[in-house]
Specification:
48% of the residues lie in helices and 19% in strands. The chain has helices at 11-24, 27-30, 56-74, 85-94, 115-131; strands at 35-40, 48-53, 97-104, 109-113. Strands 2-1-3-4 form a 4-stranded antiparallel beta sheet. α4 (85-94) runs antiparallel to α5. It is globular, with a radius of gyration of 17 Å.
């Protein structure tokens, strides 16, 4: 017996479709997408915080800035601190929780994205910065 899918698309599928649409958009389309980064730095719930940005690009810069401040805290005497993408990924993975809420104009709501998406987006963001 052949079963047809339900008329309504499950929310998870809608989110995956939205995520695909979001990753396919040009940088100009992404420029004004309000982004909220939700972060918990340790297992202690008191470390939960959020940061909001006018764009996904600014949010990626904000996460890099958090990591760079952490590096300066750990190495206060080092003048020029360098790191690569794997160091940044380790920082992201070391956080108890990290996610993004990105405003989707077409539905007038925020869609959630996980740490894997953030790392992927970070890679593309830094690659673009390096090419300029």
């Amino acid at each position: 017996m052949l079963r047809l899918p339900p008329k309504e698309t499950p929310l998870h599928s809608q989110l995956l479709f939205s995520e695909a649409k979001l990753s396919d958009r040009s940088d100009s389309e992404m420029a004004n997408r309000h982004t909220i980064i939700l972060m918990q730095s340790s297992p202690n719930r008191a470390t939960r915080t959020f940061m909001d940005y006018d764009s996904i690009s600014q949010a990626m810069d904000g996460i890099c800035g958090l990591y760079e401040r952490k590096l300066k805290e750990i190495n206060p005497t080092v003048q020029n601190i360098t790191y690569d993408i794997s160091d940044l990924y380790n920082f992201i993975d070391g956080l108890a929780d990290l996610s993004a809420l990105i405003f989707e104009h077409s539905i007038q709501a925020y869609l959630p994205y996980d740490r894997v998406w953030i790392k992927n987006r970070m890679f593309h963001h830094l690659k673009k910065l390096a090419s300029h």
